[in-house]
DNA sequence: CCTCCACCGGAACGTGAGGAGT
DNA sequence: ACTCCTCACGTTCCGGTGGAGG
């Protein structure tokens, strides 16, 4: 976030000093801002009565000491992992469950307890968490693993620029220096880009003498093992644990427990927790969503200086979360994909103007995109590539793209904007292409009119 | 019933940036 | 300078696909 006023300050002062004359930058107006507003900038905020005691407790990254309604899964995990304390390799586990059902939290909790217990009884047990979304190749996984065991005092460095088999060999030698158990947690294991990685990792114990390794794979996708090699599949899923979605009542429990620790008493109206829970339960019982909703509701109430949070704040929070998400997604898109969003915007505006309620189709959208690209002096990408962008925008929830057959007139995708047009236009207001495309929209419309 | 359109979407491949060892 | 790798981004090719229309 860049504060526009601060950029103005910078540009003004540099402008003055760049004239070449030895003039001191005029800072009188800065003083004015200081004295008149900045001095009191935080006063009002500080005067507001905070509703939080400990905001962190409602953060999705906070891992509480207990996880309500996950006792059974935690016990199961602990039973399977217990052999690690005798330096035996526990069975490999696959943990399934939708986002926000406590998979990662439960495993982190059990992992920490396992490491603590190991220290207590004088054994070496390490639990290493790797997110395959960011570390999706064998090479990177090996590097991450190796880094955990590199002796800080030695000169060993992470290896880059070596053949993968050499990195594998070096990682093994680092792992195998002493008797220990290592549990590798592969979060979002379905994002792993190489099947060979799983093959090697599940057979790693054959190449080790002192260390025992076992794998915990976490996946949202129940079918992710389907395309895998049968040997990998059986070795990876020796044990399977499924985390079912929380229902609304369980979500209420979670929210109550957390808010008791996070908030001052009597801050929440009675309907708030049931409403947050119900809204999150609609989306596959996602506790993260429920917590976000509650936290943002409280923040909104706090900002409005309200003494209690009501359903009104929850609704506002729900809107805000969705708007922020869409805006963030669109702003972070690469230029070509944003040009496609502009094409959608222009077509949607045109259709609305013409009173034409029908959805866009791929061919139509591609032509509009190509025209817009040329206007801003970009080379339009191939239709194949743009088809992938359309799928991506669909999965991001910005549009809905449905494959339909128009019979003799071919197969296409019917594309509908899922964000209100005015909101999309608002989001694109400060986009780098908007100004240049402003007149095109008009030209296009008059031409088509 | 068959044809055929306008795409879909998988597969294979190319390119170039970037990082670090040799 | 070269090697060995990842990774992002893109293209071309081509076998489907499903229903309107002949």
Radius of gyration: 28 Å
Count of DSSP-assigned helices: 18
Largest sheet: 5 strands, parallel
Q: What is the mean pLDDT? A: 80
Distance between the termini: 40 Å
Report strand order across the widest sheet.
2-3-4-1-5
Overall geometry: globular
How much beta, percentage-wise?
5-15%
Helix content class = 40-55%
Structural class computed from helices and strand pairing? alpha/beta
Structure description:
This protein is of the alpha/beta class and 449 residues long. The protein has helices at residues 4-17, 28-41, 43-47, 71-81, 103-120, 138-149, 164-175, 195-202, 230-236, 248-262, 272-282, 287-303, 311-331, 335-353, 362-375, 383-395, 421-428, 434-448; strands at 93-96, 125-131, 180-187, 211-219, 239-242, 360-361, 399-405, 411-417. The strands form two sheets. Strands 2-3-4-1-5 form a five-stranded parallel β-sheet, sandwiched between helices. Strand 7 (399-405) and strand 8 form a beta hairpin. Helix 13 (311-331) packs across helix 17 and helix 14 (335-353) crosses helix 15.
Features of the shown structure:
single chain, 18 helices, 5-stranded parallel sheet, disordered N terminus, alpha/beta, 449 residues, globular, DNA-binding
Helices and strands in order, then pairings?
Blueprint: H1 4-17, H2 28-41, H3 43-47, H4 71-81, E1 93-96, H5 103-120, E2 125-131, H6 138-149, H7 164-175, E3 180-187, H8 195-202, E4 211-219, H9 230-236, E5 239-242, H10 248-262, H11 272-282, H12 287-303, H13 311-331, H14 335-353, E6 360-361, H15 362-375, H16 383-395, E7 399-405, E8 411-417, H17 421-428, H18 434-448
Parallel strand pairs: 1-4, 1-5, 2-3, 3-4
Antiparallel strand pairs: 6-8, 7-8
Helix pairs in contact: 4-5, 6-7, 10-11, 11-12, 12-13, 13-17, 14-15, 14-17
This protein binds a DNA duplex (22 and 22 nucleotides) through residues 136-137, 139-140, 157-164, 167, 193, 334, 336, 361-363, 381-385, 387-388, 391, 403-413.
């Amino acid at each position: 976030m860049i504060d526009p006023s601060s950029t103005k300050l910078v540009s003004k002062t540099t402008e003055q000093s760049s004239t070449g004359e030895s003039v001191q930058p005029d800072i009188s107006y800065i003083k004015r801002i200081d004295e008149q507003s900045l001095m009191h900038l935080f006063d009002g905020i500080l005067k507001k009565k905070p509703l939080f005691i400990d905001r962190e407790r409602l953060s999705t990254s906070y891992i509480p000491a207990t996880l309500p309604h996950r006792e059974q899964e935690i016990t199961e995990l602990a039973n399977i992992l217990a052999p690690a304390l005798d330096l035996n390799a526990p069975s490999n586990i696959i943990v399934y469950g939708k986002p926000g059902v406590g998979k990662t939290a439960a495993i982190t909790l059990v992992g920490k307890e396992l490491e603590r217990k190991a220290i207590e009884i004088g054994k070496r047990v390490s639990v290493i968490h790797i997110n395959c979304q960011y570390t999706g190749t064998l090479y990177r996984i090996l590097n991450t693993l190796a880094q955990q065991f590199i002796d800080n005092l030695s000169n060993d460095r992470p290896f880059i620029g070596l053949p993968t088999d050499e990195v594998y060999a070096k990682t093994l030698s680092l792992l195998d220096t002493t008797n220990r158990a290592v549990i590798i947690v592969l979060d979002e294991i379905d994002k792993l880009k190489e099947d060979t990685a799983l093959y090697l990792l599940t057979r790693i114990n054959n190449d080790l003498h002192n260390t025992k390794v076992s794998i915990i794979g976490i996946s949202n996708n129940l079918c992710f093992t389907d395309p895998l090699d049968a040997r990998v599949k059986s070795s990876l899923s020796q044990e399977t644990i499924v985390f079912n979605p929380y229902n609304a009542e369980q979500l209420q429990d979670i929210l109550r427990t957390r808010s008791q620790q996070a908030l001052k008493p009597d801050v929440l109206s009675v309907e708030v927790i049931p409403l947050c829970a119900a809204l999150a339960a609609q989306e596959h019982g996602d506790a993260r969503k429920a917590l976000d909703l509650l936290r943002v509701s409280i923040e909104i109430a706090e900002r409005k200086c309200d003494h209690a949070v009501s359903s009104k704040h929850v609704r506002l929070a729900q809107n805000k979360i969705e708007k922020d998400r869409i805006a963030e997604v669109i702003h972070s898109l690469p230029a070509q994909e944003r040009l496609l969003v502009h094409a959608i915007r222009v077509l949607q505006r045109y259709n609305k103007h013409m009173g034409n309620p029908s959805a866009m189709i791929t061919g139509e959208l591609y032509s509009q995109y190509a025209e817009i690209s040329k206007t801003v002096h970009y080379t339009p990408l191939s239709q194949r590539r743009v088809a992938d962008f359309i799928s991506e925008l669909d999965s991001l929830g910005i549009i809905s793209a449905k494959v339909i057959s128009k019979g003799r007139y071919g197969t296409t995708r019917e594309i509908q904007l899922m964000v209100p047009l005015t909101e999309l236009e608002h989001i694109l207001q400060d986009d780098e292409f908007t100004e240049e495309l402003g007149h095109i929209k008009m030209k296009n419309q008059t031409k088509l009119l």
